[in-house]
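Is this the right way to post structure tokens for a design question? Let me know if I should format differently. Anyway, here goes:
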């Protein structure tokens, strides 16, 4: 009887699923987003910001992308698992070749049983930094964990005065990144200058779901509505047990949903507070930056002043404090991978941070294509090239990943193709030159939260787990754009034997590579076996630097 019910429920679910089709012309736009600087950016259909994408759980999202840029492009649905369709994940030279200028390509994204708060962004040449990003909301077909009347989207971005390529060339020219003292980004709230964002309207007595998305590429954001309590119900597209917090502290790529109940009276209006800050780029007197906006109960009502306690006295959603709604216990571990952030001087004399000793660099063949074309050798990490940082995983193994950060700089790490259980955080390393509050050791409760983007604070480690149940090639990288640019990333080659039996790259993707002269078979160099001749020379560390 139970089996019959499950089959019936699946049939009903599929009957309601829709095919949502969008046409995106990705091109350059010009304008002033931060209230100060007129500059070139990247938008869709001539707009920036461009509209959020709304679909419903079970829908198929089809995005026809035309590339009107003068360089290749691609998109990534951040948080979507792409189970069975790894080739639509988006990162250039990991799962596909970029879409060439003047050409078009169609992404077919299956939401399946996922729902919650996500976003879509560029994943070629760091085009998300220059505007190619928007919210993706997958509405649930079931009753929410907490009822609400309306929902609103809040987005936070950091916006620089120059394009990514120009700014990165400047950063590359510095002997030490710590000397960077200019070009600190302004904050955008809901796509516009953080000091001039439209008011948020509250109706007395109504309950609101705020979907809050940190679409930044460098800065952290704190968000509060003094005089109002937030109840957290979702993190990164996964429902959580309701957790009362005073505000949200978010790193690049992270998302939350919170329930906020409006006051019963419209006697007063209120102000929300947004703080943008970064340890990654030291700017004298420019971090943190504080922005405020209006919570409008009634036009013309006086604004009630709320005396706010210090941040240390408030409740923020710690990674380990959030518990998953479905009460799934810790997974037992089959394999452990430990990755340590280190700063090295490399053979090219650059001073860069990496995971372990190797900088991730793209190879000559998209790594997914190597996994699909190398037969039994696909299970040997060497065929992918030394700078893919490839880890081959066995099908259905539970993998524990420990990321150690012995530096002062905070990071967020995004796992493509997976949500991960947050098991534990704690202190790691120290500095004799930097004074900061010691990191506390925090163990998750009985039902660890699952999410796809995790914070690793300075001088901290984090321990996460996932089951290798999604055969494919999955990028895992720091979501600070300049760290990803410099190679703070690894690639998980997940169950290549199963992958070869279940998936094949669509013909149009193969042809798109061939038109650009990019090989679609062979090892990382496009050769057979372990012959990696033709790859750019590897960059190796010659000395390790201390914590900064």
């Amino acid at each position: 009887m139970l089996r019959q019910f499950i089959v019936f429920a699946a049939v009903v679910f599929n009957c309601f699923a829709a095919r949502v089709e969008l046409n995106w012309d990705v091109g350059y736009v010009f304008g002033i987003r931060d209230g100060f600087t007129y500059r070139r950016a990247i938008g869709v259909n001539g707009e920036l910001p461009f509209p959020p994408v709304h679909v419903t759980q079970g829908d198929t999202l089809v995005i026809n992308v035309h590339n009107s840029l003068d360089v290749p492009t691609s998109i990534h649905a951040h948080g979507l698992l792409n189970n069975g369709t790894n080739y639509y994940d988006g990162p250039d030279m990991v799962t596909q070749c970029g879409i060439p200028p003047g050409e078009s390509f169609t992404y077919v994204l299956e939401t399946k049983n996922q729902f919650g708060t996500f976003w879509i962004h560029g994943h070629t040449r760091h085009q998300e930094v220059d505007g190619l990003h928007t919210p993706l909301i997958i509405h649930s077909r079931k009753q929410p964990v907490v009822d609400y009347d309306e929902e609103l989207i809040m987005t936070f971005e950091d916006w620089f005065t120059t394009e990514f390529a120009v700014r990165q060339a400047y950063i590359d020219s510095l002997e030490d990144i710590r000397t960077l003292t200019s070009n600190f980004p302004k904050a955008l709230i809901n796509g516009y200058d953080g000091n001039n964002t439209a008011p948020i309207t509250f109706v007395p007595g109504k309950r609101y779901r705020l979907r809050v998305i940190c679409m930044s590429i460098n800065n952290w954001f704190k968000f509060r509505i003094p005089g109002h309590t937030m109840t957290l119900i979702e993190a990164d597209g996964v429902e959580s047990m309701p957790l009362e917090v005073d505000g949200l502290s978010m790193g690049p790529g992270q998302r939350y949903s919170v329930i906020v109940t409006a006051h019963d009276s419209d006697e007063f209006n209120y102000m929300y507070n947004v703080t943008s800050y970064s340890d990654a780029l030291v700017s004298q007197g420019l971090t943190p930056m504080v922005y405020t906006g209006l919570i409008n109960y009634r036009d013309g009502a006086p604004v009630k002043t709320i005396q706010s306690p210090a941040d240390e006295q408030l409740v923020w959603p710690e990674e380990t404090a959030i518990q998953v709604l479905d009460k799934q216990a810790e997974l037992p571990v089959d394999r452990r991978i430990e990755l340590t952030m280190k700063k090295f001087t490399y053979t090219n004399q650059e001073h860069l941070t990496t995971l372990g000793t190797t900088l991730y660099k793209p190879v000559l063949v998209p790594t997914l294509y190597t996994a699909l074309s190398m037969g039994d050798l696909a299970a040997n990490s060497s065929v992918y090239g030394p700078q893919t940082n490839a880890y081959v995983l066995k099908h259905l193994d539970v993998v524990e990943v420990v990321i150690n950060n012995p530096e002062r700089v905070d990071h967020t790490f995004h796992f493509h193709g997976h949500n991960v259980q947050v098991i534990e955080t704690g202190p790691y390393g120290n500095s004799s030159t930097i004074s900061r509050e010691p990191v506390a050791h925090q163990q998750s409760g009985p039902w660890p939260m699952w999410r796809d983007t995790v914070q690793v604070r300075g001088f901290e480690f984090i321990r996460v787990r996932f089951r290798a149940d999604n055969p494919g090639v999955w990028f895992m990288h720091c979501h600070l754009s300049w760290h990803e640019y410099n190679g703070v990333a690894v690639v998980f080659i997940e169950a290549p034997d199963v992958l070869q039996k279940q998936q094949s790259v669509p013909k149009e993707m193969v042809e798109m590579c061939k038109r650009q002269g990019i090989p679609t078979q062979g090892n990382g160099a496009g050769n057979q076996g372990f012959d990696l001749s033709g790859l750019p020379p590897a960059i190796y560390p010659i000395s390790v630097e201390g914590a900064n």
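Format looks fine. Someone answered above. Worth noting: The helical segments are 2-16, 164-173, 367-373, 481-486, 496-502, 507-514. The mean pLDDT is 91.
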